Fold:
Amino acid sequence: MAAVTVEDSVAAVVPIVVYWAYSGVHMALGHARVMDKYRLNTKAEEDTKNMVSKRAVLANVLMQHAMQLAAVAVLTVLTGGGRGGATTPSTTSYLRAARQIAVAVVVFDAYRYAWHRLAHGNRFIYRHLHSWHHRIVVPYAFGAIYGHPVEALIADTAGGSLAILASGLPSSPPGATAVFLTLCTVQGIDNHCGLCLLPRRLRWVWNGAAHHGVHHLPRGVRHNFSDLFFVTWDRVFGTHLPYAVEERPGGEGLLLRTMPPKASSKNN
Structure:
């Protein structure tokens, strides 16, 4: 075992700082009139359809970040912390870290898809755990990780730790793990920000507010389980619900129109 170093501590805090900074930017953009044409829901829908207050969401997210800090500290101590930082960084070490981050992303993405699908397929898990997250019917940026604390331990803490260990990230400097966690943070916020900013051609493979927004619709709740980076999991395992992103009547933003699962659209 090893003590948590300053470098380890900074690496643990960075993803949390990014969460609030990036979600803050999204919240500001979401309320700017210049971004109205990208909004998937109106401000009125955000205020009336959600079943949990933003104050409660704020408290929940702060609690989860405290849990995240504790989990990173424990994992750092158990894995020896920052051992990869003992030598001067080289091109080889950067390439190794990049490969490990890529592996961690794929492992975590697969884990999150599997857990998310199970959470909807098992009545007990959905009723007592995952239904918390669906109290937010109209997603918004800083509510990205809102949910039951036990599910946070299973989906985020356990899944993230598995991805970190399986990829070998503990052998690289702490900054590599921070990059991985920050990428997950940014992507999770993008998926819940309520702004359709992803180019149409990328929606076939990359997740975003539209694909995940469909999952938060009552008619899409049993589809589109891809939770972070790739929508490929839904396409491969038959849980993809096609959709179209259309202009809202009156030109006040966008709306999502779902289609039968066997249909296809150039817009999704």
Q: What stands out?
A: The first helix runs from residue 6 to 30.
